[in-house]
Give the backbone structure.
Amino acid sequence: MALTIGDTAPDFEAQTTEGPIKFHDWIGDSWAVLFSHPKDFTPVCTTELGYMAKIKPEFDRRGVKIMGLSVDPSDKHEQWAKDIEETQGTAPNYPIVADSDFSVSKAYGMLAAEVSGDPGDRTPADNQTVRNVFVIGPDKKVKLILVYPMTTGRNFDEVLRVIDSLQLTAKHKVATPVNWQQGENVIIAGSVSDDEAREKYPDGWDSPRPYIRIVPQPN
């Protein structure tokens, strides 16, 4: 069954390029991004893994851990990492799960329960649904799910933007409008009454309609 926002992210134990991990323990009190790949040595994924390595400091700054996943064993991940470094300029500097038994992909609803066999016998097209991004909060709940086709590289700058919004809205009772960027105005959440809002925002708010209450981003 597919995961939805608000579900607890399935815990798992797996071998990674940085050794064995237990996923929830690895997350700890941090936020986390798990992003998956249908096969090692695929061109679009190669660009994605390299870019994530380049912008890892941005995730670190936000207290977010990142983890890749591919439906191949660890030794292939290590060979692939050399290609990524040579072609993209940066080697993966985060763990990559070796999901060669498909257990994590199945737990996260990316492959059907009946999938089995040798991952080497499967083509990228067989695993094309293993192209998700999951953002997971410190409470281990799924906060965001993005699903991409194999032919479209993922926009990880957008993932950072969404994390900024998720972290802000988790701390303050606000929502972020379309195309919001860090530092821009926000919307008071609908769950906040006008009386409560006046206490927090004594200078008031802009309100083009009664249900839209716009205020500067809180710190």
